[in-house]
Amino acid sequence: MSTAVPAAGAADAGGKVSDALARVEKDLAALWASPDEGSGQAKVRAAMINLVVVAPDGDPSALRVATDRFTESHPGRVFFVSLDMRAEPWALRHEVSAACRADGGQVVCSDRLELAFGSMVASRAQSLVAALSLPEVPTVVECRPGAARALIAALAPGADRLVVDSGNTSWKGIGEILQLARGKLGAGHGPGIADRQYLREQGWRRLLAEAFDAAPAATRAIRRVEVTCTPGGTTGTGAPGNHPSTLLVAWLAARLGWQLESADRARDAAGRPVQLARAEEERNDVGRGAIVSIRIDAELDGAPMQVSVARGETPWLVRWETTGAQRRGGQHSLAREDEVRVLVEAVDSHAARGPGAASPGREAGATRSATFDAVYAETARVAQELAAMLAA
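Below the sequence we write its predicted structure tokens.
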């Protein structure tokens, strides 16, 4: 169920957004004052989050479908923010609507605000979004591929959490976004970061860690890593300059203290060489640039040990196995690809750091979230370095 109130206008040439803000607030008031079109019942608000989706200008229908599913579990206010280069420089086009569902005899709604800025008012996006955001709930800003850098620069520093996607954005672009988010605030400050691709690959990281659980000393004696992916070349799932193996290799290097020497070679924490290899395998049951297997040659107490984590005939069933100095194995199912689930995980990985009263459980959650952010930040730094070497 949904209702919409389209409208358009302009911010004044002096740079104030008060008139535009008043128009949007008026339309929001009218939206909430009107009964639900399907049932005739009054709308009830549930508020957990402000989600700001910064996207290229265009029809946001597909984004609406995804965010409507998202707000079923994380209700609140959703902003679709874009830069309209065809509009007058001072123009601001807006539309308000609601996504509603029946829940316990009530009609529970989340509202949506579509804001298309002209080029001269893009820098004021943060002040408008902040004024319209629901109070006392976190604000998450998602940077979609192709989103205008001017809008990201305006909105990212004010976010509680920033969501990016290195599967569809180059590592150079990711670095620029992180700099935009943190550059204005100084080192050590800025929003927490979640990467959709990093979350898509978390099943592989967990299985790899499980394979080494009984032999942690072998992680300090890795000699070769080979990541096999489906063909996608350096485009991965769509990002120029990103090889699909980059993120996983960067995670290993960051966690184990490796120093990159080239795209094909690193030095471990003891200064010994580690070979970095990439391979391709055709598979019709998974997408382009998807990981097929990870194979590692290591040593345990001076004896060779091999670790393999690989998809089986059923693409979502992955088996891990160690051979040589230690023989163990197991298999697990990877989570099915669902981009709404990925977004939920991106938001929830930071939820404990949002507004609210302190508690031991909340503090523990905040610690886990800070650790997650720190691990990803170092992984992203290494990934940018490795991507530049691959592109050289």
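Confidence is low (pLDDT under 50) at residues 4-15, 233-238, 352-367.
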